[in-house]
């Protein structure tokens, strides 16, 4: 029993060290890394009126509050965000981002942006990529 009592503080110290190490390894502190198979990937889903309408509906529910209804980056919550959302109407805001990278950002989230995750099917996310790209074409 005494050996067990002497062992408990060691376990507590080890557990605390593991917790602190894990706490410092949050998504916010990890570098954002898109999987290699998505870097440079082109959108495999051809936009259809139905797909774009569904993406626009998703945008209204999930994205416009920060990114603005037209993708201008001036949603209701945008003024409190650091960094502020980009203005997707400006083609330069997406320069250097492949469709695959946009897909990953929408699916997994980035910085303050929450992930769509499993709530959206891959085709829905690809349609969202097309919608985001369409803001700069207007």
Describe this structure in words.
- This protein folds into two domains: about 1-30; about 50-135, Cytochrome Bc1 Complex, Chain D, domain 2 (Orthogonal Bundle), CATH 1.10.760.
- It has about 140 residues and is mostly helical.
- It has four helices and no strands.
- The longest helix is centred in the N-terminal third of the chain and has 22 residues, at about 1-25.
- The model is unreliable at about 5-30 (pLDDT under 50).
Tell me the name of the CATH class of the largest domain.
Mainly Alpha
By DSSP, the count of extended strands is 0
| Tally of individual domains | 2
Counted by DSSP, the helix tally is 4
CATH topology of the largest domain: Cytochrome Bc1 Complex, Chain D, domain 2
Beta-strand percentage range = under 5%
H-E string: HHHH
Uncertain spans: 4-28
Q: What's the CATH H-level superfamily name of the largest domain?
A: Cytochrome c-like domain
Can you summarize the main beta sheet? none
How does the helix and strand content classify structurally?
A: mainly alpha
- What does the overall shape look like? globular
Distance between the termini: 75 Å
Helix content: 40-55%
Keywords: Heme, Iron, Metal-binding, Signal
GO molecular function, one term: heme binding
Pfam families: Cytochrome_CBB3 (PF13442)
InterPro entries: Cyt_c-like_dom, Cyt_c-like_dom_sf
């Amino acid at each position: 029993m005494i050996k067990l009592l002497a062992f408990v503080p060691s376990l507590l110290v080890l557990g605390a060290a593991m917790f602190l190490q894990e706490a410092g390894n949050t998504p916010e502190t990890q570098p954002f890394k898109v999987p290699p198979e998505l870097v440079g990937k082109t959108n495999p889903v051809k936009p259809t009126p139905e797909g774009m309408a569904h993406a626009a509906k998703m945008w209204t529910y999930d994205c416009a509050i920060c990114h603005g209804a037209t993708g201008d980056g001036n949603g209701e919550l945008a003024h409190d965000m650091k960094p502020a959302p980009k203005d997707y109407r400006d083609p330069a805001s997406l320069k250097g981002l492949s469709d695959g990278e946009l897909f990953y950002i929408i699916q997994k989230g980035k910085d303050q942006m929450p992930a769509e995750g499993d709530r959206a099917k891959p085709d829905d996310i690809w349609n969202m990529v097309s919608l985001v790209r369409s803001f700069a074409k207007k």
